[in-house]
Design a protein that fits this description.
Blueprint (H helix, E strand, L loop, with lengths): L2 E6 L7 H9 L4 E4 L8 E5 L2 E5 L12 E4 L4 E3 H13 L9 E4 L3 E3 L1 H13 L16 H10 L11 H22 L7 H9 L2 H4 L3 E2 L2 H10 L4 E4 L24 H7 L6 E9 L2 E3 L12 H9 L12 E3 L1 E2 H11 L3 E5 L9 E10 L2 E3 L6 H6 L1 E8 L16 H14 L3 E5 L7 E3 L7
Parallel strand pairs: 1-10, 1-11, 2-5, 2-10, 5-7, 6-8, 7-9, 11-15, 14-16, 15-19
Antiparallel strand pairs: 3-4, 12-13, 16-17, 16-18, 19-20
Helix pairs in contact: 3-4, 5-6
The chain binds guanosine-5'-diphosphate, 6-O-phosphoryl inosine monophosphate and magnesium ion.
């Protein structure tokens, strides 16, 4: 049985959460494999909204198992408050429903303090260097992992190991907080006690070897669905560096994080919005700093699900999408928020970039060049019809279908799912895809 991976093909917030929730109805196991609570994945079921940060987006299907694998950074206090909120909303997550790898990295409050202090420490002179992170401690936690000083989940369950590791790790952090960022130092024994006080709440979700678990499920022929967070262009290696996140967001990293061979990952679904958004700083070739951008922002309710920040909006960028298809090996696409474009008289799509007098068709690997490109745009007539109640692709207005067919042809990749509203039900299957 092959494994399916769903990845964001733009700068995040493409609608991955919604799609995973829809697909999860047909899967057995849902896996979060990178990032942390910088993610904000929104699910809407019969008008009821749930926003998830660390908990995989299969959680509303209470008969499925959700797994968090080794490359995720786990804000343990954030996770517990997310689980508490879910419980208050009537979703009591049991130990059968959520398994967390012993190898995953622990993210603690001081990682957030460092993340926020670092961004705040940049003055207006160097504000262009500000990444505009979510402030969730993602960078500092991954730095610890790479420096081999991080706590991992298995360390939490032995009080002495925990204390020793905290003492070791905090020496350097306290120096930075005090001397560089002029922030209060962290008290090691207080933090130790704070962690011990929640250990019994975390224990039920501990699962030593999630690789073994997933491999067994795979051999049993169970359907495993991987949920990407962030987006391709925020990838640490291939994104618009340094304006990226600190993890590998690409489909291939699912294999590494889960500890499952890459040959099993054969269905790679790229999710993209019918236009484009970005939250945080960094180049955005098709950005619309005008009324149309504001209209897309308002109509699409483009506010960050994690930070509430306004998302920058622009036209769909086919150069960037083609790059995402290549990096991930995407063999199926899902177009989201098509309904948002119904407000426009005319829609534009970027088909190439111009840099000086040169026309380029590939996404530049150097961010300085990307900052300079101008989009070459093709115009389409808008359909100006409400499509949020359409239940089959053939009932979409011809102009909307023309738009989809153009994208599909230009990308040479099938669009198999069309989303026309935030609700689970507002999903049109062009091809059964994940249903069989
Ligand atoms: P994710 O991070 O990729 O899961 O995406 P977010 O949840 O951060 O942002 C997507 C937003 O668009 C959420 O508010 C969703 O409820 C909403 N959404 C998803 N699909 C559609 C759609 O087809 N139409 C509309 N209007 N909203 C959608
Ligand atoms: P989901 O999973 C959109 C952006 C931040 C910032 C950069 C680095 O909901 O699509 P970080 O806190 O990761 O160090 O911030 O990445 N970013 C996201 N943008 N969606 C996300 O997640 C994001 N997670 C991080 O805005 O520009
Ligand atoms: Mg999001």
């Amino acid at each position: 049985m092959s494994i399916t991976v769903v990845v964001g093909a733009q700068w995040g917030d493409e609608g991955k959460g919604k799609l995973i929730d829809v697909f999860a109805g047909h899967a057995d196991t849902i896996v979060r494999f990178q990032g942390g609570s910088n993610a904000g994945h929104t699910l809407v079921v019969q008008g009821k909204k749930t926003v998830l940060h660390l908990v995989p987006s299969g959680i509303l299907h209470q008969d499925k198992t959700c797994v968090i694998t080794s490359s995720v950074v786990i804000d343990i206090f954030g996770l517990l408050s997310e689980l508490k909120k879910l419980k208050e909303a009537g979703i009591n997550v049991t130990s059968n429903q959520l398994l967390i790898s012993d190898r995953a990295t622990v993210l603690l409050p001081y990682h957030k303090s460092l993340d926020q202090a670092r961004e705040l420490s940049l003055t207006s002179d160097d504000s262009k260097e500000k990444i505009g992170t979510t402030g969730k401690g993602i960078g500092p936690a991954y730095e610890d992992r790479a420096a081999r000083t991080a706590l991992i989940m298995s360390d939490l369950f032995d009080s002495d190991t925990l204390l020793a590791k905290l003492e070791h790790g905090l020496k350097e952090k306290n120096f930075l907080l005090k001397n560089l960022y002029h922030q209060p130092e962290i008290n090691v024994s207080e933090l130790h006690q704070q962690i011990l006080s929640v250990i019994d709440l975390l224990k039920p979700f501990r699962h030593a070897d999630t690789s073994l678990y997933l491999d067994q499920k795979r051999k049993e022929g169970k359907k495993i669905l991987f949920e990407g967070a962030q987006g391709t262009l925020l990838d640490i290696n291939h994104g618009t560096y340094p304006f990226v996140t600190s993890s590998s967001t690409l489909a291939g990293s699912g294999s590494i994080s889960a500890g499952l061979g890459p040959q099993h990952f054969t269905k790679i679904i790229g999710v993209f919005k019918a236009y484009c958004t970005r939250v945080g700083n960094g180049p955005f070739p098709t950005e619309l700093n005008n009324e149309i951008g504001a209209q897309l922002q308002a109509e699409g309710h483009e506010f960050g699900s994690t930070t509430g920040r306004v998302r920058r909006c622009g036209w769909l960028d086919l150069v960037a999408l083609k790059y995402a298809i290549r990096l991930n090996g995407i063999n199926s696409l899902a177009i989201m928020k098509l309904d948002v474009l119904s407000c426009l008289d005319e829609i534009e799509v970027c088909t190439a970039y111009k840099i000086g007098n040169e026309i380029i068709h590939e996404f530049p690997t150097d961010t300085e060049s990307l900052k300079k490109v101008e989009p070459i745009l093709e115009k389409f007539a808008g359909w100006k019809t409400d499509i949020t109640k359409v239940i089959s692709p053939i009932d979409l207005p011809k102009k909307a279908l023309d738009y989809i067919h153009f994208i599909q042809k230009a990308l040479d990749c099938p669009i198999d799912v069309i989303s026309v509203g935030p609700d689970r039900e507002q999903t049109l299957w062009v091809k059964p895809l994940y249903k069989d």
